[in-house]
Structures are given as structure tokens and as C-alpha cells.
């Protein structure tokens, strides 16, 4: 895919392309007791959703560009929203597109699932 900015999904994982460089994979997994969702970056936990009143995320340890953190946070939030509300994938992706546009991230294209990388 041509371009300098985007989000690429593959299963539950996604990568953020920023200035032709991919960051990821970002992912989630259910906690062991299935009462919450853990947020992962490169298989390391960076946050957790326990309830609407209790959510935590901190990507500082990875020294990512701020735009990557912002786009990844919006994306993982919309994925979580879709899961918790039983939304079909196409619907929460439409909502993600709207949220990205509203937040000033129009240049981030969303790529459908596939093993291809944005950049080599």
C-alpha cells in the first residue's frame, strides 16, 4: 500500500504506519478470568480494561511517536467498544474512521486484513 500513514489489521492485531514506518503489533487478549481485556504491544501488556470506570493504558515505556500513541489509542478503544457492544467489524471500523477524521487523523488510511506490509 502506498502512503505514509495508515492502520493495518490482521486478525485481532493491528499496526500503525507513521511516516512510512510500521509500529506494532498492537493487540488485546481477555484476562485469565474473562472479566477484563488486556492491551498488548509486541506481546507486552501496556494497559487493561476492567470496567467503564476502570481503564488503564500507558505506552511510555516503548518511546513511540505521539501520533502513533494517539492513533493506536483511538483504534484499540474502538476495537474494545466493538467487542463490548457486539458490533460487526464493518460497523466499528466505520466508527473508527469517523473518530480518526474528527480527531484530525484523516491521513491514516485503514487497510483490511491481509499479510502484506505497508512498507518494506
Write the layout of secondary structure elements.
Elements: E1 5-10, E2 13-18, E3 21-30, E4 37-41, E5 44-51, E6 54-57, H1 66-84, H2 89-102, E7 109-111
Parallel strand pairs: 1-7
Antiparallel strand pairs: 1-2, 2-3, 3-4, 4-5, 5-6
Helix pairs in contact: 1-2
Written account of the structure:
This protein is α+β, with helices and mostly antiparallel strands and 120 residues long. Helices cover 28% and strands 35% of the residues. It has helices spanning 66-84, 89-102, and strands spanning 5-10, 13-18, 21-30, 37-41, 44-51, 54-57, 109-111. Strands 6-5-4-3-2-1-7 form a 7-stranded mixed beta sheet, with helices on one face. A hairpin with a 6-residue loop joins strand 3 (21-30) and strand 4 (37-41). Helix 1 (66-84) packs antiparallel against helix 2.
Strand order of the largest sheet: 6-5-4-3-2-1-7
Distance N to C terminus: 10 Å
Which residues form runs of ≥5 with pLDDT under 50? 115-120
Number of helices: 2
What fraction, in percent, of the residue positions are helical?
25-40%
Total number of strands:
7
Helix- and strand-based class?
A: alpha+beta
Give the structure's gist in a few sentences.
The protein contains 2 helices and 7 strands. It has helices at residues 66-84, 89-102; strands at residues 5-10, 13-18, 21-30, 37-41, 44-51, 54-57, 109-111.
